[in-house]
């Protein structure tokens, strides 16, 4: 646990308007489950009362939280505020899709105390949005950002996606240009991943889709970073950029810094500084287990010393903050490893910290292995 940092609270809302092809979340065809899910959520929250320090972030995401009715959102937020302590400057983020943004919905979020919106734009290309089976158009996305501004939100994040067949580098640059023209405080750029249980994952397994080659991945990654840096955005983590340090997602930074966080809802993950656990994915089973006063935990792990060491490397070296040099100070060949990686332009050492360079961030997934014998 990082001393001096408060914990974060994450709420997973597992409903979408229709089953999402790349995340696999639950369709609102199961909307009759929503009242049961809310009651189960209340029971789960009660299991953790008194176990965490005050939260300074609350992140409501997962499927599409803004699908919930005003009364449902209020009931959930009221439950969380009654059951848990929050700091006075809490960062309260809600994920939303452009097609769900209305003045009425935004007024509801303002009344609930939401001060940060994370908008799932994915692309400003209508062809790409059609390929991704998104319900909104590029124009709707732009109008949604402007509407959010009109309602007074001063912290807006835009989520974008790259790395799929219906997208070239020129099209991706156009999406980035249209994003920065809207001047969001934060931009996340994620490469499409293919989970086995999702529609895209199944198409990949059948050879109906092709992932990016390594050279194309590098082109997209470096092109993204250079473009956003040119327009004043700081890359503070592999996939995340902010217009200033204060606009970096405080909640997401907790994951990279191994700060405790509590996750509520189906498939949500939690970490108390020592152990990590995760909930069952199925909404039906989640509700059923909690109706019988049981915790909906699907698995738990407590890392041994070597596992914790690797995790600190894996998480810390994805960020511009890097890791403390003390993390590897007693490791075999410490000096040689640092010297070789610095000579290769992968890391640099400054003020007692090991910091990944741009080249290092590009190979962040394999970088920890370079510190192992």
SSE blueprint:
Elements: E1 7-13, E2 15-16, E3 26-27, H1 34-47, E4 55-62, H2 70-83, E5 86-96, H3 103-112, E6 116-122, H4 126-131, H5 138-150, E7 156-162, H6 169-181, E8 186-191, H7 199-205, H8 214-230, E9 234-237, E10 240-242, H9 250-257, E11 261-264, E12 269-271, E13 275-279, H10 283-291, E14 297-302, H11 305-316, E15 323-324, H12 334-343, E16 347-350, E17 353-356, H13 358-362
Parallel strand pairs: 1-4, 1-11, 2-3, 4-5, 5-6, 6-7, 7-8
Antiparallel strand pairs: 8-10, 9-10, 12-13, 13-14, 15-17, 16-17
Helix pairs in contact: 1-2, 1-10, 6-8
The total count of strands amounts to 17
* SSE pattern, N- to C-terminal: EEEHEHEHEHHEHEHHEEHEEEHEHEHEEH
By secondary-structure content and strand pairing, the structural class works out as: alpha/beta
Globally, the shape reads globular
Taking all Cα atoms into account, the compactness measure Rg is: 21 Å
Low-confidence stretches: none
Strand residue content: 15-25%
Query: How much helical structure, as a percent, in the residues?
Result: 25-40%
Largest sheet: 9 strands, mixed
What is the first-to-last residue Cα distance?
26 Å
Strand order of the largest sheet: 9-10-8-7-6-5-4-1-11
Question: Describe it for me?
Answer:
The chain has 373 residues and is α/β, with parallel strands linked by helices. It has 13 helices and 17 strands. The strands form four sheets. A nine-stranded mixed beta sheet has the order 9-10-8-7-6-5-4-1-11, sandwiched between helices. The protein has a three-stranded antiparallel beta sheet with strand order 12-13-14, with no helix packed on it. A three-stranded antiparallel beta sheet has the order 15-17-16. A hairpin with a 2-residue loop joins strand 9 (234-237) and strand 10. The longest helix has 17 residues, at 214-230. The two termini are 26 Å apart.
């Amino acid at each position: 646990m990082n001393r001096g940092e408060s914990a974060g609270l994450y709420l997973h809302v597992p409903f979408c308007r229709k089953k999402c092809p790349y995340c696999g979340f639950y369709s609102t065809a199961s909307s009759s489950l929503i009242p049961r899910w809310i009651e189960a959520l209340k029971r789960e929250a009660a299991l953790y009362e008194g176990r965490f320090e005050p939260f300074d972030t609350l992140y409501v995401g997962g499927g599409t939280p803004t699908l919930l009715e005003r009364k449902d959102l209020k009931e959930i937020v009221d439950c969380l505020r009654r059951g848990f302590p929050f700091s006075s400057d809490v960062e309260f983020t809600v994920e939303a899709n452009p097609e769900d943004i209305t003045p009425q919905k935004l007024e509801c979020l303002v009344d609930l105390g939401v001060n940060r919106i994370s908008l799932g734009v994915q692309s400003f290309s209508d062809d790409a949005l059609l390929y991704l089976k998104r319900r909104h158009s590029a124009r709707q996305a732009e109008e949604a950002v402007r509407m959010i501004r009109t309602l007074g939100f001063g912290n807006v994040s835009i989520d974008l996606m790259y790395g799929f067949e219906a997208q070239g580098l020129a099209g991706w640059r156009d999406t980035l240009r249209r994003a920065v023209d809207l001047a969001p405080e934060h931009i996340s750029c994620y490469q499409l991943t293919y989970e086995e249980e999702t529609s895209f994952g199944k198409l990949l397994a059948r050879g109906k889709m092709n992932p990016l080659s390594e050279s194309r991945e590098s082109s997209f990654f470096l092109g993204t970073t250079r473009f956003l840096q040119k327009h004043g955005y700081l890359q503070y983590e592999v996939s995340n950029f902010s217009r200033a340090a204060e606009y970096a997602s405080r909640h997401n930074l907790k994951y990279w810094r191994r700060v405790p966080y509590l996750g509520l809802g189906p498939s949500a993950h939690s970490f108390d500084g020592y152990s990590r656990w995760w909930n069952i994915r199925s909404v039906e089973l989640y509700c059923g287990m909690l109706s019988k006063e049981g915790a909906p935990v699907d698995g738990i792990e407590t890392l041994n010393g070597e596992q914790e060491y690797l995790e600190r490397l894996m998480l810390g070296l994805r960020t511009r903050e890097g890791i403390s040099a003390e993390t590897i100070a007693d490791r075999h060949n410490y000096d040689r490893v640092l010297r070789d990686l610095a000579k290769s332009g992968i890391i640099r050492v400054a003020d007692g910290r090991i910091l990944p360079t741009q080249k290092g961030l590009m190979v962040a997934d394999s970088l920890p292995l370079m510190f192992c014998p």
